[in-house]
Amino acid sequence: MIRRLSLPRLRLMPIAAVLAGVLVVAKIDRLVRMEPGSPGAIGTARASTPAPAEPTRAATPATPPAGQPAGQPAAPAPQQAAPGPTPEQQAERAVLEALRARRAEIEAREQQAVARETVVAAAERRLAQRVQELSALQQRLEALERDRAEREEAGLRGLVKLYEGMRPRDAATIFDELEMPVLVRIVDRMREAKASPVMGAMRPDRARLLTAELARLRAERPTVR
Fold it and tell me: How many Cα atoms occupy the beta-carbon half-sphere of 53 within 13 Å?
């Protein structure tokens, strides 16, 4: 019973060994055919070797700048400075500024001229008003002077009539005591026929002085043509 069971085991071992040898020879042949560096080997190796997967990088939160509290959005990046004006633009700006300054100067002068004209116009109005007032005052004074002269002339005419009606000696006695300016004006208005007897009856010194004053008064009087 034991012999029968061992015989088949002894027969299977050589078969397994033969199969193992065949597999080894096949592997060696395959390795010899696929030498390192050959295109087939490289292609096969590349095909057989899976590509390494790229490591997944976790999103790293942006670090806020110093002095900025966490949780607030970061400040925008500073913009680049705009390019400066060209020489043509600078020249044009200078011309415009000069024109603007000139216009402001002209406007200021116009305002000063308008202000001066206003002041001059006001002064002219005041002067015209003052001239009117002076003219009215002069007319009043002239009217008063005419009135006074008329009243004075009326009084002198009354005295002349009175002395002409008196006797020459009596009138001469009064004329010797009158003031010379008043006496000259009275005698100048008397008729010569009435004045001559009175002057003949006066004192000689008073008669001479009266004659000289009458000549001077009549010489200064304008001649009526």
Answer: 3
